């Protein structure tokens, strides 16, 4: 797995979103990782050394996968840039169809149905 630096990752993520506006999806996953094997982590834990955890971020459109690792120092800057990219490319989402609560409750009252059973 090749890890990109933060800025190239964000640029490639932007181009993935732009390519998928008409059709397609982009999946982004975030995971806590130390980027060390389990054996090395166990040795560090028994030795009492602190393990620095990072955030592993992967993005894929089904054909191409990109990934990066963000440390605690760069987390705020990355999160702000990531949020800006998401807000800019959320325009192609479909609006959810919702039922009007007032209309559905009025129709229930007219039909004589109620959600609570009648007590005898």
UniProtKB/TrEMBL annotation:
Keywords: Cytoplasm, Ribonucleoprotein, RNA-binding, Signal recognition particle. SUPFAM superfamilies: Signal recognition particle alu RNA binding heterodimer, SRP9/14. Its main location: cytoplasm. Residues 89-120 are annotated as: Disordered. It is found in: Cytoplasm. Gene3D superfamilies: Signal recognition particle alu RNA binding heterodimer, srp9/1 (3.30.720.10). Pfam families: SRP14. Heterodimer with SRP9; binds RNA as heterodimer. Component of a signal recognition particle (SRP) complex that consists of a 7SL RNA molecule of 300 nucleotides and six protein subunits: SRP72, SRP68, SRP54, SRP19, SRP14 and SRP9. Component of the signal recognition particle (SRP) complex, a ribonucleoprotein complex that mediates the cotranslational targeting of secretory and membrane proteins to the endoplasmic reticulum (ER). SRP9 together with SRP14 and the Alu portion of the SRP RNA, constitutes the elongation arrest domain of SRP. The complex of SRP9 and SRP14 is required for SRP RNA binding. Belongs to the SRP14 family. This is Signal recognition particle 14 kDa protein. It comes from Stylosanthes scabra. The lineage of its organism: Eukaryota, Viridiplantae, Streptophyta, Embryophyta, Tracheophyta.
């Amino acid at each position: 797995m090749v890890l990109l630096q933060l800025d190239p990752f964000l640029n490639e993520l932007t181009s993935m979103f732009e390519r998928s506006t008409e059709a397609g999806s982009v999946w982004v996953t975030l995971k806590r990782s130390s980027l060390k094997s389990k054996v090395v982590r166990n040795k560090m834990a028994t030795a009492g050394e602190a393990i620095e955890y990072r955030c592993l971020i992967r993005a894929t459109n089904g054909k191409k996968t990109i990934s990066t690792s963000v440390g605690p120092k760069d987390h705020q800057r990355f999160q702000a840039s990531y949020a800006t990219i998401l807000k800019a490319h959320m325009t192609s989402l479909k609006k959810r169809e919702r039922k009007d609560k007032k209309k559905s409750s009025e129709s229930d009252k007219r039909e004589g149905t109620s959600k609570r059973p009648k007590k005898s």
